[in-house]
Amino acid sequence: MIRKRLTKYVVAALTVLLTSLGLTAITPAGALDGSKFDPGLIISDSVFFDFGTMTVAEIQRFLESQVPVCKSGTTGMPCLRNYRTDTPEKTADPGKCAYMPAQKDISAATIIYNIARACGINPRVLLVTLQKEQGLVQASIPSPYMYRAAMGYGCPDSDPGICGKVWTGLFNQLYKAAGQFQWYGDPNGSFTYLRPGREVSISYHPDASRNCGKKTFTLKSQATANLYYYTPFVPNTAALNNLRGTGDSCSAYGNRNFWRYYWDWFGSPLGGGFLLKSSTSDTYFISNDIKYPLADPALVTELAPLGPLGEISKEYLDSFPTGTPMTRLIKTAPVSGVSTYYFVSSGKKYLVASCDQATNLGLDCNAAITLTQVQLDALPTGAFRPDITGIVKSIPVAPATASYYMVNASKKYPVDCGKAPLLGFSCTAAPAWDDSKLNALATVRLGVTGLGISALMNLDDGSRVIIQAGKKREVLDDASLTAAGVGPTAPSPLKLKDFSYLPWGAPIAVDGSLFVNRALKREGVIVNGNYFDIDPVTRAEIDFTKLFRQTPGSLGADGLSAIPNTASIKTLVVDARSQHWLLNADGKTKVDDSTNWITAASPVTNELADKFPTLEQTITGFNFVQVKGQKTVYLLKDGIIRATYNAADRDVLDVGMNSTAPVMVTVSGLASIPKGVMVLPAGLVVKNKQTGIVGLIDGASRIVTIAETSMAVTLPEPRALTNLQLIGYQDQEVLSSYKVSCAGLKYIVANSLLHEAQVAVAKDLPGKTTPLSDASCALLTITDQSMGHYVGERITDPKTNKLTYKAYKIIKGKRYPFKNMAAYKKDNLTEPPLIWVDQTFLRNLPLGNEIGGETVDPKPDPKPTPKPKQYTIVAGDSLSSIAIKFNTTVSKIMTLNNIVNADRIRIGQVLKLP
User: Fold this and answer.
1) pTM of the complete model
2) Is residue 192 very low, low, confident or very high in pLDDT (cuts 50, 70, 90)?
3) In a domain, 36, yes or no
């Protein structure tokens, strides 16, 4: 509807009218382009009917921003920000408004809020209508008529004289207009001729005599239809070309002004506030007729007071030029060439004291976008320091005036009340404190840099993060801040999420600090800019507090993410010099072993390794090792450790060891070396407690067991051991009946003595040759008496105690008795004399026919070999001289006679010759 006074289109007259009514012209939101006005979609339904867009406090703050100071005048009427009245009870009006109770002495903001909610109309729509109808929102000296006809309700163009006579007063005007706005869209009513989705023709001007004509267009929303029901005229091109002035004689301004005021104050009336998107685009922030892409999607939430996010057509969105990406740094329009900068967080704005501070926060003043004053007013200014509880004032003594201070628990900060709102505070209603209360607080004067938001954030989990040079750096503790040259710093009101655009930097931590890693819930250290996690087992064994600075501070995974993070510190480590170390409670032991177990070492830097004192001992790979406080001593050899039985065994096992003192290690250090079974020295005679089997330890895993068929040998008393203690000796061999080899030489055992024998003799004895280690051979006595094919038996007659003698010849595993000794002597012409043996030797040799009586007729070999040439060694012979004598080589003689050592020959020994 067009008010009577809007028929006066002369700019000068309009200016005089505004001045006389105490109206303040609005500050343009930028170069709003009239070409963007869509007559079919002035406002979207989602905006028009959204009754929850503002709280009472927000409405009040908006009214105060439009009229900062109410002027006194002769009208007797307060400006809208200060207006208060009683309101009547209203019964529910179906299709229009819900029930409203009577209320006493409530503000205009409360009236607007209550009616908006009761009638389901956006309070912003009501505010804009109050302004476009009577200019009441910005009137500093309103007239009584402005209140009587506040919404222009009941002011038909056909009879403007009745305006403000029927439904008068602010409450009635708001209530009736809001109800009518809701009723227009009700299908039960009579307002059905303007339907969204259909073409409509709306007049340009109420005076038909001017022949201004009509505009035909498609109506796109019910809300827009409601505006045309209320004010049934569309602005022409002249009115749109001069949005803030007059057009021509055919111009009407009601709906143009509604659209313009809404844009200026609340952003786009199309589906949202200043945050807009199309169905296929990203979100943009609209300011000063430019769309800015959001550098951080979280800004949609952070800018909530400037929302909600609205969706518009792609064509309409594309009509806005695109600016640079919007960051959290915003600014005011310059005043005398200087802008004020703010940081946006959680729907509030916080003062940024300087562009240097912005740079430190990773932001660029040159990229900050300019917000309109309406937009800035919609973002409450947050307190720049959360520790400051408010502003107080002194109690002055005339003629002095009060001084104002920002205060916290221990300090007071003098403040200029003109600048206090920039810091998120107000001197209004500041309580008065006497001198005793003020003097209890230390006075601190803040410089320019101290007035901006702090870069130090106290997080909810107790950790702290500081922003430095565009990076987030977690703070370990106060000592680390001091060491980094950061003095006492006030806390920031900002949250860590506000800096998601920044990378993490190295934590602020004193080198050599021992602290808890919150992500792993265990300790770690920082040394020379590197982080090292400490294996919990190793930490339990080694007191790291003796080597590092322990702090109750902690660091998280993000705070540690920007520095090198190597493997966990375990007991076995290797430094950058490729030197391996075993750590223990006293320091580090050098490891020079090169077997596979050292490959599991955790890599550390030289600086970390050097934190541990170097101990005297060295692990060479052949050592005794022992866990401090435990009895068991282990032998480390060939890359494994094996428990030893006692000190006597170790005296045998330590042959060739550089140092026999056990190297002390931790439990985990011991566990880092592969573990074998108990080690027993070769040559040890043992007896299995469970089986009763006696054996001879003959190597690292070999045992030679003694059976009934084994040769008779004299051995030390066996050590009784369990199956478990002997489990490592699975390489078992039964001691043969006759033959062993020591150091490569074959011997025949008789009477516990080792006799050298010719190969042919050994072949004629049954069974295999049992190889023995040097240690086992050392238990046996080697005699110089060689054994041939002849053995003898001394037999004592039990009745007469008379001794008789019996000789035998061993041929192919049997013993052939001689009739008498004379027969033996006659037969043995070339071999060594017989060896007297006992029954143990003889029992495993079957008895053959007697020699010297019946003829011995052993079966001939299928292929008899020719008798080889022989030579009996005499005094002065050597293998070299024999080889020369018979035109052969030492090697051939040794091979033919199974001789291993060329020096082990004796007089009377018969050699085969090639």
Assistant:
1) 0.65
2) confident
3) yes
